[in-house]
Specification:
This protein is an alpha/beta fold and 302 residues long. The chain has 11 helices and 10 strands.
């Protein structure tokens, strides 16, 4: 049955949400393992406490074709992020705390509002640090009639232990695979361990949902889409990411190879990434992806 959470039931979704909420007392929801007491108002690297903060919610038409469809993806942008990416294209939300506090019931109402507007799915963007709130809100929305797929749109910096709470809840995983180089991950996102953490996370996501499945209208109903943003001066990093995906998951996986990098935020002062990528850089990565045998997914013009 799709969506998956309808088979699981709202009581189990609620139970998992409550269990995760308790973990905020000594927060270990993301790989940072800050162990701060968010319930008392303290903040970890993600800069979030116990409150749910959301930047925006609306129909979005700029995702991959089977996610956006023709009526749009019901995107909910969560405020803050466990990563500190210099080049984040959404930095006012992820780094500058653009958003406001909402109650859990208000989040459930957002989902239902987006469903009424015709959204093909509910798309949580940068959700990890607010995962307890999301599950509790999802449980409420299920009681009120939510019945469209859930998209987990993430940086790919996820703990396997926490992803297992989402087994049977998330229909479509939409993670990044940013880095194959530890030093680059440290320089650009202050996360030296990103490559190893990401590798394990992608394997768990693939195990849970498998290859991308579409309905008769070409809309995603289940599966994994891995995004990779090609960075300037870092073709070898991209090749390493593709090698990792082939070795750890397989060439069956759907890849969204993105060319839209542009320097913003703190990237402007880093001479490695303070320019757009070139046609030659992107084409070299596209050719390497084809050489490895990936056939499912999308490439973009520059």
């Amino acid at each position: 049955m799709y969506p998956a959470y309808l088979s699981l039931g709202f009581k189990e979704v609620e139970r998992r949400g409550e269990e995760l909420f308790d973990r905020l007392k000594r927060c270990d929801i993301c790989p940072r393992n800050c162990f701060v007491d968010r319930l008392s108002g303290k903040r970890g690297i993600c800069r979030s406490d116990y409150r749910l903060m959301i930047s925006s919610y609306n129909l979005h038409f700029g995702e991959e074709p089977p996610i956006s469809g023709w009526r749009g993806s019901g995107t909910i942008f969560l405020t803050n992020c466990p990563l500190r990416c210099k080049f984040c294209q959404n930095y006012p939300i992820s780094q500058l705390e653009n958003g406001r506090v909402y109650e859990i019931e208000e989040l459930s109402d957002m989902m239902l509002y987006l469903q009424r507007r015709g959204a093909h799915n509910i798309n949580f963007v940068t959700p990890t640090h607010h995962l307890p709130h999301i599950l509790l809100a999802l449980s409420l929305a299920m009681k009120k009639g939510l019945k469209i797929p859930i998209v987990y749109n993430t940086s790919g910096y996820e703990k396997v232990e926490i992803l297992r709470y989402l087994d049977g809840i998330v229909d479509i995983y939409l993670p990044d695979a940013k880095y194959s180089n530890n030093e680059l991950a440290k320089r650009l996102s202050l996360a030296y361990d990103y490559p190893e953490v990401n590798r394990l996370a992608l394997k768990e996501m693939a195990k849970q949902v498998g290859n991308l499945k579409l309905n008769k209208d070409g809309l995603a109903i289940r599966g994994l889409i891995v995004r990779h943003l090609v960075l300037p001066n870092n073709v070898e990093n991209s090749k390493g990411v593709l090698n990792m995906i082939k070795e750890e998951i397989g060439t069956w996986v759907t890849i969204s190879l993105m060319s839209q990098y542009f320097p913003t935020f703190r990237a402007l002062s880093d001479n490695m990434v303070n320019r757009k990528i070139t046609n030659e850089e992107y084409e070299e990565v596209v050719k390497y992806m084809e050489f490895l045998g990936f056939k499912n997914g999308w490439v973009q013009p520059i």
